[in-house]
KNL1 protein
Amino acid sequence: LCRELLDLEAQNKQMLAETDRLREEEKRYRDLVESYDFTEWEIAEWSQQQAVFTFLYDSIELTVVFGPPIDGDTFGEDPSRKIVSLSFESLLDEEEAPPSSGLVQRLIFQFIESQGCWQEKCPTLQSLPQVLHDVSVVVSHCRALGEEMEFLERWGGKFNLLKTDIDDTKVKLLFSASTAFAKFEVTLSLSANYPSASLPFAVQKRIGNIGEKEISAVLSDVPVGHHYLRRIVSSIHQNLLLGPR
């Protein structure tokens, strides 16, 4: 009886260990699926010859041209089917679009162009989901940046932000506060890897003593990540502009 109890206990431990292993494996697969769960792209066309995907409110188009279908592949979706070319095109009317939309587009295409030949990265259909994922990550981050810019343009006054201006991929922020007797401009240089890296910046003093040294001290304490630009503006406001210096 004692041996049977020991055997049952050993079996229970083994079953618990197996259950834990299966839970860990399930979590790993769930995390993997979630990491690919982006709604940043839509299929505009899928034919025997090509597929067309759109991003960012149909303002960016990706055209994927297929090679000949493989024998027996009725629907032309065999993962080993060759891809002849991948090309991105901007459909944004920059003259009509708000400046923040132009900034977002320039950053996304900065990433696209930095990757070199996309057909080499995606020689077959099997690689296409990874390409869609990689582009979607950048589109998602840049779209969020555009929303931050719109927020600052609307509510910047609450942070003593007098004016926001966009020059290519640079954002110029003009701060002014009578309580701190200060007026200065901070220029932030953005790139497609926003918000995962610190932003190079330059400062131009207009009135008062707040300059590069003071801004640098504040920005060094702002961690990269979600709403990075908004948090930079908020930190400058809270640490430098709420009282006399």
Q: What stands out?
A: The helical segments are 2-35, 99-114, 118-121, 128-155, 212-219, 228-240. The domain at 160-241 is CATH 3.10.110 (Ubiquitin Conjugating Enzyme). Residues 32-36 have pLDDT under 50 and may be disordered. Strands lie at 41-46, 50-55, 60-66, 83-90, 161-167, 170-177, 182-189, 201-207.
